[in-house]
Amino acid sequence: MADLRLVISILVIINSVSCEKDDYIRRKMEALNNRSKELYGTVGDDVKWDSFDLEYLMYPRGDKRKLSILSRAWQEYYECLARLAESVPPPRFLPNVISMLFQGSVARLPCNLCAEPGSTEQLTWIYSKGGDEINITAAIEDFSDIQSYDRLSVEGRVVTIYNVIPEDEGVYSCRDGDTQGGIVIIEVVDTENYTVVKPTTSRGPHPVAPETYEGVILSTQWSQWSECSVCDKVGRRHRYGICYVNLDQNLIADYLVDSEKTTARFKLMELDIKLIELFQAFPGGVPCRSQYLPQPMKALDVVQQRPSEIMIGMCKVPCIERNPYEKLENSNDVYPVNYQLPKQPPPPVTTTIFATVGQRITLRCPGTTLRDVPISWRVGSGAVIVPRQLAAAGRGHVSSRDHLVIHTALLHDHNLYSCWQRDKLAGAVKLVVGAGWQQRWAPALAVLGALAALAAAALLRPRARGQRALYYIH
């Protein structure tokens, strides 16, 4: 009865006291807080009214503006549910996704759960591979050492992984409280065949249109456009298109009604219930070269012959300063306690590649600035590599995936190659080119050379104090 009297008292106070009597409400709420502590002990922190707009938090009553906000929030929630239901055909499996990505691209994993207005969101992302599960949300908060931590960002209900690598493959899923969302399976490839295309607003070649063969649908699923490579002048941007295969929903429905008749009519390959269940579980389709696609369907000529695509477009955007530290919202130049700073990019990553004379070499940027910006390359002390000039010289080229390719390595290609996203250094690759015997002994020689340099520096320090020398180890 004490619980009921307490609840009734709160409702009577809130509905009987005028909104303008803020002091009176505060006194009553303080009394209720004290009474609650007497009945139940310490149940939590007292309500701090100084940080709230009391008038704004009152029940909307006849306030049309507040009613409009609530109505719009519920409308967005029901629209989300409708889109979710429409995207999942019968028998209403969870909306699962298989996402194939080029190595070095950006993965965006949206949570396909709908949040009810007013609910306390407790969104958690889970990553599993080989039977082990990792709580991504907790790992980010605790700075845990997971493979993709420094390249991973969680904003709202979307997880973004920059510069994806094969180690990022696995199963991702989101949970909102006790509600489980569909799974997202990531596959990372480096040898997927692709063609370079342009937007339909430019001269060709243009993307391949969707195709249908006896109920087998072939299409291209596109990523978002990247940011422009430069600002305040004409640059380039790109997006990736992966070949996907799917079964027509009418074909699936016919099979479920009469499997024998449908199988006899379908000539491309033999249908079975496992294939039907696969495309029911993944209504968006399966990548054409996915390891999860059954071999009979993967071996179809129409599937093998359709390539993936990379679209290159021109762009021009103004230079906008993105530094969030320069502008504060209050006059005291102090961040509010609940202000969440954006995640800072990881330090540049450096790798070393050993190659022999005459070898074809592909350099990939090993790092990221946590932005989806095309890569530009520099050599040595900072000379920018112009792709057209490199291709015209016949020595190499920059691929559509921003890889620096050297067709035939020469001794003077031995250098440091740095990769940049606009004016931010993302990483560097040290290329060591030598003959066969040099290649075999290069790591040992590098270590010995470093030790010798350290010893020489220690011996010469008293005589060379105040001077700085630059050593090259070949």
Task: Give short descriptive properties of this protein.
474 residues, alpha+beta, Immunoglobulin-like, 6-stranded mixed beta sheet, 5-stranded mixed beta sheet, 12 helices, globular, disordered N terminus, disordered C terminus
Can you characterise this structure?
There is one protein chain. The chain is of the alpha+beta class. 28% of the residues lie in helices and 26% in strands. The protein has twelve helices and 22 strands. Strands 9, 10, 11, 12, 13 and 14 form a six-stranded mixed beta sheet that branches. The chain has a five-stranded mixed beta sheet with strand order 1-8-7-3-4. It is globular, with a radius of gyration of 30 Å. It is found in: Membrane.
Write the layout of secondary structure elements.
Blueprint: H1 2-16, H2 22-40, H3 54-57, H4 64-87, E1 97-102, E2 107-110, E3 123-129, E4 132-135, H5 136-142, E5 152-155, E6 158-161, E7 170-176, E8 179-189, E9 194-197, E10 211-213, E11 216-222, E12 235-247, H6 249-257, H7 259-265, H8 273-281, E13 286-287, H9 295-298, H10 301-304, E14 308-315, E15 349-356, E16 361-363, E17 376-379, E18 383-384, H11 387-393, E19 396-398, E20 404-406, E21 415-421, E22 424-434, H12 436-460
Parallel strand pairs: 1-8, 9-14, 15-22
Antiparallel strand pairs: 2-6, 3-4, 3-7, 5-6, 7-8, 10-11, 11-12, 12-13, 12-14, 16-20, 17-18, 17-21, 19-20, 21-22
